[in-house]
Amino acid sequence: MGGSPHPHVAVVAFPFSSHAPKLLAVARAVASAAPSATVSFVSTADTLPRFKAGAAPANLRFVELASGVGDGDLAGTPPWRRVELFLEAAEAGGLKQALETAGAGGTRVTCVVGDTFMSMAAEVGVPWVAVWTGGPTALLAHIVSDTLLQDIGEHGAYAAVAEAASRGDELVTYPGLGRYRVRDLPFIGTRHGGEFRRIMSQLFRRVAQRVPRAATAVAINAFPGLFPPDISAALAKALPNCLPIGPYFLLPGTCAAADDSHGCLAWLDGRPACSVAYVCFGTVASLPPDELRELASGLEATGAPFLWSLREDSWSLLPPGFMDRAKANNSGLLVPWAPQAAVLRHPAVGAFVTHSGWGAVLEGMSGGVPMLCRPFFGDQAMNARAVEHLWCFGKAFDDDKPFTSGIVAEAVKSLLDGEEGIQMRARARELQAKVVDAFGPDGGSTDNFRKLVELLCAHE
Ligand code: UDP
């Protein structure tokens, strides 16, 4: 490999929700593929211990980035304020300082591979490769959001957007977005509000300004051929040097052992093929209490075994006796965390009930499992739409149609046992085969990852 004799790549995480593990996968893969490079994984002090666990390539180091909370009470600061303080500190020189620390006493940082949310990396004076962790078409939408919102009658007037959303208008005039509806857009005002909304819209405004102008390349969590040609062409046009290198969790060198401390895989081992419904809504989203109870009753009504990863603070909201009954007849396992990617590859899993976060979509696809999508916010509605209409391996519910016990029972049964489920599983397995091909010796993701590593090692 040519280029600098001592490349030093800083991989910068956005240390909230599921972003950082996805960046860590990229960091580990780059470190394994370029043993002569130094790779510094940059994240906040409270998150680093988690990422240091397990064996790491010898050239991978960990560097602290200011949380922005200072001497304040990290745990007592509300989540939205932590995000805001962190971004303010990183914008105000915190990222630059962390990169100087990374380079102190050794090779200075020659290139930043940063979460796209950390777009202040555009200003630090070395080439910036942006890593997008979410659904790629959501990034397209963010980049054209100004025009888009003007066209659909927004800018303060969210009523107009909501009206367009309820009509279900499709975005046919926007390159790459023609299969999505107005209501699927990540910045439609009806889904989440308040402080988070304000912070995220500032963040995405900066992303939309900086990525097309300043990124040397943009890595996306997808493989070549995943999207139809019009969407791929729109991504290639909108994003400088767009490199589909995903799914990131399958990059060579990333495979750390799955954390199965709650015994999910052993519990699945005893089940017939495609018999279990796996339920998980990711690291942030949570169902309103009524809907959570409806989901629980619906699962129970199917009579099918279920594995449910649910954060512990929601367990008390489940219907009375729900878990006792599941335990008594060994029909369900409730855990606070599951090794999801491994669970979805287990032959016993036959349906995935999910918020359709992009990680979930790729893991469902890689496991060949049909999905039932109940999106909440961000890219999730676009992802759900793509699962149902682009790839046809699942069903999507609109977020204004809450789960009822009857809906859940019917949909889960149809995925596990029905004709529709058979067809969707066949589609999911075709996609699964494409994922395998993408990481073959001549596969599209293998090839793009090689290009990425060459690019990173070319900078001095
Ligand atoms: N995840 C997991 N076990 C759990 C819950 C979540 O392994 O019990 C992982 C999952 O594999 C996925 C990530 O957390 O990679 C969640 O990412 P996604 O993009 O689906 O959703 P987000 O949490 O960002 O909303």
Description of the molecule:
By secondary structure, the chain is an alpha/beta fold. The protein has three domains: 8-134 and 190-252 and 439-457, Glycogen Phosphorylase B (Rossmann fold); 142-184, no CATH class; 264-437, Glycogen Phosphorylase B (Rossmann fold, 3-Layer(aba) Sandwich), CATH 3.40.50. Helix content is 44%, strand content 13%. The protein has 17 helices and 13 strands. It has helices spanning 19-33, 48-52, 79-103, 136-143, 145-151, 158-167, 194-214, 229-238, 264-269, 289-302, 322-328, 340-345, 358-367, 380-390, 405-417, 419-438, 444-457; strands at residues 8-12, 38-44, 60-65, 111-115, 128-132, 217-220, 242-244, 276-280, 306-309, 332-335, 349-354, 371-373, 394-396. The strands form two sheets. It has a seven-stranded parallel β-sheet with strand order 3-2-1-4-5-6-7, sandwiched between helices. A six-stranded parallel β-sheet has the order 10-9-8-11-12-13, with helices on both faces. Helix 10 (289-302) crosses helix 15 and helix 13 (358-367) packs across helix 16 (419-438). The longest helix has 25 residues, at 79-103. It is globular, with a radius of gyration of 22 Å. The model has no long low-confidence stretch (mean pLDDT 92). The protein binds uridine-5'-diphosphate. The site of uridine-5'-diphosphate has 18 residues, from helix 12 and helix 13.
